[in-house]
Amino acid sequence: KTTWMPVAELLRTLFQIDDRADPADIRDQVSARLSALDASLADVLPAVLWLLDVPVDEGGWKALDPEQRRQATLDGIRRVLVWQSRQRPLLLVFENLHWIDAETQTFLNRLVDGLRGTRILLLVSYRPEYHHGWASKTYYSQVRLDPLAPGTAEAFLQTLLGDAPDLVPLKELLIERAQGNPFFLEESVRTLVETKMVVGSRGAFHLARPLSAIRVPASVQTLLAARIDRLSPEEKKLLQSAAVIGREFSLPLLQAIMGSEGGDLGDGIARLQAAEFLFESNLFPEIEYTFKHVLTQEVAYDSLLQDKRRALHARILDALEELAADRLASETEHLAHHAFRGEVWDKAVRYLRQAGARSLARSASREAVGFFEQALTALDRLPSDPAQMAEGIDIRLDLRQALVPLADRARILDHMRTAESMARSLGDRRRLSWIAYAQAHYHYLSDDQARAQETGQFALELTGGDDVVLTVGVNVVLGYSLHVTGNYRKGAEVLRRNVDVLTGDLLRERLGHPAFPSITSRERLVRCLGELGEFAEGLRLGEEGMRLADEIDHPTSIAAMCMGYGTLH
Q1: Residue-wise pLDDT tens digits, 466-505
Q2: 91 - beta bridge partners?
Q3: pTM of the entire structure?
Q4: Which stretches within 446-467 are classed as H helix?
């Protein structure tokens, strides 16, 4: 699941953006289209560019934390679609929601909540196991696609095969075996035609062999595998190579991995289209094809031996790096997938970490966890040495950032204990100090304040104040913990260190934190000073904090300072 990918593809279609367009052209194109829709949409530009992997220079956007960017994106894209629907009715189609990523699901939920009164028709498809909360909406209608009833299945076969009397027992056999699955029926008929069990033309076939000679496979997967096996070696290799790329693939990428082995690729693909394994899905900016059914792609993929699959994934990785050299960032998830499946472990680690960081920046914590954990699996396949162990620690620290919003404390502690053991064996004080900080934060959230203060102090001793980012983070955790336990004087002492250090440009830096340490430190320091009765200093710092929060225009920081300043009063 690639985070936000369906929404990004929707925007590319809406704004008619070429995949190969450079960032400046994309910015101009999106900006012009938003202005044409309505002048009030100018503030949506950063969110659209962010989803399209175009660098965003707007200062206000940079000041937002990942969750705020996520909310701004959800609201902004919905507004764009509503305005577009005012110009002309809009039909949005999302298929296979059972495979949807969490962020796209959240977007659809937000869109559905605001559909009433708009000229938008949202059409979605999903399997029965998928669940949503839309059933209570008066403007929601569900059309169940149940298995074909025997009468309907017979009519379907009548259209495909015809009404020759000798076909009657064959139709009964197919209906019994397919259990109302139209795809199974269609593939069964195609198999009968290919194997010359029936002869004629569509709607006018008749039996060419006795019914006793016909064997209908027990499953559609078995049937598809048999059809693929009957292809010529060249066609079979072409179909299998395409299946390794994915459900959808571009002609240039297929050409790149096939090389001279592909022969006349155009003729081969034309034959696969005629056999209805593939269909053409896009002509511009490059020709793209899609497998007729996801089962077709899965069966073709599974028909390859493991070694051949691995080799093809590795070749696809190389081809992608060459073909998408100017837009690798937007292909990170695909690169990671093929590197992992191709067992190119060093690149798998690199691209999986990038994919995890990308998901984390988009507040897609669950997807980020998946990427980072897969990166650890890939890293374990590389030779164990100090560099490999150091990277293992760094990935676990990245993973901890993704697990914090999910409140998965057990996994956080488990990973930090492993990282601590690795750092101690390396004698790496810098990484050990970051691990101690992470553990202090864990203990603070778990309300084990004694251990939070102990590990926080240990982190400060390890870093010796050399790492400003780490020192500030530890001081925030310690200050909060000391305030919670009523040690206001010590808490004020710790938090004053941050106020003294965070000056100039550092006042407006997050330093890797979701909030601004310059504000959170003042907020909690003001509370400590209030409890100590040191009101004059508290008022001065409270006014400073309020002014700073207003200047940064960060809602969470403003709310926090209001709480701290209000407590002081």
Answers
A1: 889 999 999 999 999 999 999 999 999 999 999 999 999 8
A2: 121
A3: 0.85
A4: 449-463
